[in-house]
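Key result, reporting period 2: structure in, sequence out.
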């Protein structure tokens, strides 16, 4: 089975938290937003949103750009794409294994 890269590990760790998944989802729907804007639609404080955005940023899932006094965040899909490709490889590995098991089981039934 293929081993995840450090980038995939970071994405999976970041997405393990349900609130970070919500932050990412809201951000994806809006295109870009500030931590203050996100806090108005999420059940957490602005400070909590900032912390979640920091984890998502370190995982490569979001990027912030300073506009005046604000930092506007947007989703960076490349890290998600890399993780999805890794998951596809894992799924294909398991599919091949299960097909082999099925083939063995069916050949044993005929004997």
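The corresponding designed sequence is given below.
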């Amino acid at each position: 089975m293929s081993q995840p890269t450090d980038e995939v590990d970071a994405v999976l760790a970041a997405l393990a938290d349900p609130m970070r998944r919500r932050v990412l989802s809201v951000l994806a729907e809006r295109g870009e937003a500030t931590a203050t804007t996100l806090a108005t639609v999420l059940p957490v404080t602005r400070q909590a949103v900032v912390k979640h955005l920091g984890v998502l940023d370190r995982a490569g899932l979001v990027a912030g750009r300073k506009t005046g006094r604000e930092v506007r965040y947007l989703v960076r899909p490349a890290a998600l794409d890399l993780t999805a490709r890794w998951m596809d490889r894992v799924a294909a590995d398991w599919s091949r294994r299960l097909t082999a098991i099925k083939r063995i089981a069916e050949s044993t039934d005929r004997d």
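The chain has a mean pLDDT of 91. The longest strand covers residues 62-67. This case is discussed further under Risks and Mitigation.
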